[in-house]
Amino acid sequence: MDLKTAYRRFKRWQQDPFEYKSNSQKTHCCNNCGNDFVGNYCPICSQKENVGRITWKSVLQSLAEVWGLNNRSLIYSLVQLFLRPGYFISDYISGKRMVSFPPVKMLAIIALLGIFLDYLIGTNGTVGVFDNDFDFEGDKMLFIDNAFEWMNSHPDFMSVIMLSYLIIPVYFLFRFAPRNSHHTLPQGFFIQVFTSVAFLIINMLYDLTSMMWFAFVLGFVWLFVTYRQLFGYNVWGTLWRIVLALICAVLIALILLGVDFSVHAFQTGNYNLATGFKLFVKLLVRMVTNSDV
After folding, report:
1. Is there a contact between 79 and 180 (Cβ–Cβ < 8 Å)?
2. Where are the alpha helices (DSSP H) in 175-292?
3. Nearest to 109 by CA among 78, 81, 139, 135
4. Phi and psi, residue 75, nearest 5°
5. CA angle 60, 63, 67 (to 5 degrees)
6. Which own/partner contact pairs does 284-292 have at CB distance under 8 Å and 24+ positions apart?
7. Residues 199, 159: contact at Cβ < 8 Å?
8. In-domain check, residue 14
9. Does residue 43 belong to any structural domain of this protein?
10. Which helix (H) or strand (E) holds 27?
């Protein structure tokens, strides 16, 4: 089999990997309630038609269920999330719930694994965004320094937080896409949940390899492939929308950080600092250049 044929088979699998077989013409007797029925499941008690004697396969299936490796398994869902990400997410938000491990549960499990890995290899920092000894007069940028140090030392949390800011930009920028057009904000929530899962895994690879460029490139490529498969735009249409959505997400983060800083400034009586535009400029320059202004 040549590479072109293999690629075509892979593309067909990406678009439709599930085969639902039906024994609609065969009558079964349910081992649980004794009802005779046609189909894959008993309409009385919902037991599957092929449940029979206990075998070693039954033992393996029971063990797999404990670790979420049965139907809609976590591992298989993660495989799909990286091999057919856009199609996989599209299946879920269009109503095919059985194709995926529960996404919010998946995010919680992967986040816990990421936290465990951070502590295991010692990448978690202890500096918080807010400092109890914060002194506006002595150093007006101490808040910003602490904020950015917290972001750098908690990349897993920052990935989830920053990706949550993409929900609204993606909603508007991909509103009239060829595929999944007019998607709703609740659907956008689940899109970003799946995206957060993927980026948490990419952050784990960064923790293990310390290759920032690799994690950045892999993350952007994954996001591009996902949105292209999910929304159906061409290469350029997908690219500029992703870049614009990321810029909007950064601006939203800066605005929220500036508002929070202004609230603290008001509480300490620094009204000029709290109401001026200098803070926003400093935050923007610091975010882009990672240097003092």
Report:
1. no
2. 185-209, 212-231, 235-267, 271-275, 278-289
3. 78
4. -65, -45
5. 130
6. 284/254, 286/144, 286/148, 287/148, 287/250, 287/254, 290/148, 292/141
7. yes
8. no
9. no
10. strand 27-29
Average pLDDT of adjacent 10-residue blocks, the chain of 293 residues? 77 74 70 81 80 74 62 81 93 87 89 81 48 44 58 65 88 93 92 93 85 87 95 95 92 77 65 55 56 45
Radius of gyration (Cα) for the chain, nearest Å? 25
**Does 26 reside within a domain?**
no
Q: 111 lies in a domain? A: yes
- pTM exceeds 0.85: no
Reduced to 3 states, what is the DSSP secondary structure of residue 126?
A: coil
CA distance 271 to 260: 14
Q: At residue 106, what are phi and psi to the nearest 5 degrees? A: -60, -45
Q: Which domain holds residue 222?
A: 72-289
User: Token pair of 39, please?
Assistant: 């189909």
Domain count, the chain: 1
